[in-house]
Amino acid sequence: MTVHFDDAAVRRRLRLEELIPALRRALIDLSAGRVLQPLRMVMELPAEQSLLFLKPVLTGDALAVKLITQMPANAQRGLPTMLATVVLMDPSSGRTLAVMDATWLTALRTAAVSALAADALTAPGAKIVAMLGSGALARSHALAMRAVRPVSQLRVWSRDAENVRRCAHDVGGTACAGAEEAVRGADIVCTVTNASEPVLRGAWLKPGAFVAAVGAVRPNWRELDDAAMRNVVVADSRDAALRESGDVILSGAQVYAEIGELLAGARPMPAPGATVIFKALGQAVEDAVAARLVHGSQ
Question: For 255-267, how does the pLDDT look when each residue is reduced to its tens digit (9 = 90+)?
Fold first, then answer.
């Protein structure tokens, strides 16, 4: 029987302490070629910067497809910018096991990937975290970063001052009037915006900072300027970064390694003290792994 999981059920069943190690294994498998995952299909919708993504994947124990919409105007409707559904199937028979609301699943697994990269690529100890963006991803990233590092200060900025105020209140952070104010001196910077032009300048980054660059998911969109992209670039998928990331394509940046290669020891970690840009496009295998955790926790 096909099971349906609504948003509340997904929130009850998906836990960071299980999700982060599961995603670590999944990203190692992705880099090692043990995952069948074509490049996602993207369809542009009539509303400005609105997109529909179709993301299929086959792993060792899951066959899944995800539908996700990105609708920037949803902020004015009181809805999440990103809405998603995952269909989870049995990989041997193709039988549908579950259909689930994947809006929170997407927000949490995206943040969990950023957090596991931060855990691998930053030194232990308390961190100042800057959040550029004030939506659902900012909230999930605040939760995930606190799961891997003590956060001494969490700064929030976006173009909407009222959203910034609400988000800072919700995550126990400090509202900032400008992006530079948020970023200067921060150890970890998360860019989780709908921007199509750079909002983060490399000149603002502290030497040795870690940047989780999550937005700008189209070849002509950017969140980071050329100066930021001249640092060490690590991607969740090299192929996806070179074909889908405007930050990488338009800057001409070279991808040093995939995070899965670093986690597996297949590539050496960046030199201590290097400023690292982690460009994440959001891989379908991450959705499949998260969906399996939700389904398996019944």
Answer: 999 999 999 999 9
SS (H, E, C) 201-268: CHHHCCCCCEEEECCCCCCCCCCECHHHHCCEEEECCHHHHHHHCHHHHHHCCCEEEEHHHHHHCCCC
* The residue count for the chain: 298
- Topology of domain 121-283, per CATH? Rossmann fold (3.40.50)
DSSP state of 142: H
Q: What would the two tokens of residue 176 be? A: 């900032």
Q: What is the tens place of the pLDDT at every residue in 150-209?
A: 999 999 999 999 999 999 999 999 999 999 999 999 999 999 998 999 999 999 999 999
Tokens of 247: 């930050």
| Separation of CA 261 from chain center | 18
Amino acid at residue number 120: A
Percent of the chain with pLDDT over 90: 89
Tokens of 208: 């040795």
Q: Which of 187, 240, 188, 182 is nearest to 216 (CA)?
A: 240
Residues 280 and 264: their CA atoms lie apart, in Å, by 18
Domain boundaries, the chain: 3-105+285-296, 121-283
Instruction: Tell the CATH topology of 3-105+285-296.
Output: ornithine cyclodeaminase, domain 1 (3.30.1780)
SS3 27: helix
d(CA 202, CA 224): 8
User: Strand 188-191 and strand 174-175: pairing?
Assistant: unpaired
Q: What is the pLDDT of residues 78-88, one digit of tens each?
A: 888 889 999 99
* Contact (CB, 8 A) for 281 and 237: yes
